[in-house]
Amino acid sequence: MIKKLRVTVDGKSYDVTVEVPEESAASAVSQPPPVSQSPPPPSAAPEPAPAASAASAAPAAPATPGSGDVPSPLAGRVIAVIVQAGQAVKENDHLLTIEAMKMNTFVMAPKAGKVAEIKVAVGDAVGEGQVLARIE
User: Fold this and answer.
1) Would you state the torsion angle of the CA atoms of residues 22, 28, 33, 35, taken in this order, to the nearest 10 degrees?
2) b vs e for 67-95, b when ≥16 Cβ sit within 10 Å of the residue's Cβ?
3) 103 occurs within a structural domain
4) Residue 84: what pLDDT?
5) Residue 118 burial (C-beta neighbours within 10 Å; 0-12, 13-18, 19+)
6) SS3 of 26, please?
7) Distance between CA atoms of 120 and 85, rounded to whole angstroms?
8) Greater pLDDT, 102 or 25
9) Is residue 54 classed as helix, strand or coil in its secondary structure?
10) Residue 119 DSSP class
11) pLDDT band (50, 70, 90) for residue 33
12) Are 111 and 136 a contacting pair, CB within 8 Å?
């Protein structure tokens, strides 16, 4: 049996279609319960997370194209830094390697230039979009 429902999340309504298995159709409620439009009481609000340490701080905004910043393509841990500051690189040269979920991801140079700065070290945890290096 197919049912059409309206769901409200954070004040925005969505029309959804839900398939209810036939064996459960007899026990299904014909009308969904009304959704409260008032905000939840303060006691229902989630506890704020404790402040993160500098090593695990939220990643910076993704780099803008052409800026020279090399952003991390995913969250993980740096397991190898291949280049050094001051080294000349060509576009698509291997800069460093990140491990995430037992898989290695190579981070390549987005453009040719000189490595101005390496902002991470082996063993550092990185977030998606975090700047790893800068190429001038």
Assistant:
1) -20
2) ebbbbbbeebebeebebeeeeebeeeeeb
3) yes
4) 94
5) buried
6) coil
7) 11
8) 102
9) helix
10) -
11) low
12) no
Average pLDDT, integer, range 108-136: 95
Q: Hunting for tokens 């309504």 — which residue is that?
A: 13
**Rounded Cα–Cα distance for residues 133 and 112 (Å):** 13
In a domain, 45, yes or no: no
- pTM of the predicted structure, to 2 decimals: 0.52
User: For residue 135, what are its two tokens?
Assistant: 């190429």
Residue 58: inside a domain, yes or no?
A: no
DSSP secondary-structure letter at 23? H
One-letter amino acid for residue 90 of the chain: K
Per-residue tokens: 86: 């001051």
C-alpha triplet 39, 40, 44: angle, nearest 5°:
155
Residue 61 lies in a domain: no
**DSSP code of 44?**
G
Domain with 29, as residue range(s), is 2-37
pLDDT tens profile 36-62: 565 655 555 555 555 544 444 444 444
pLDDT of residue 134: 95
The domain tally of the chain equals 2
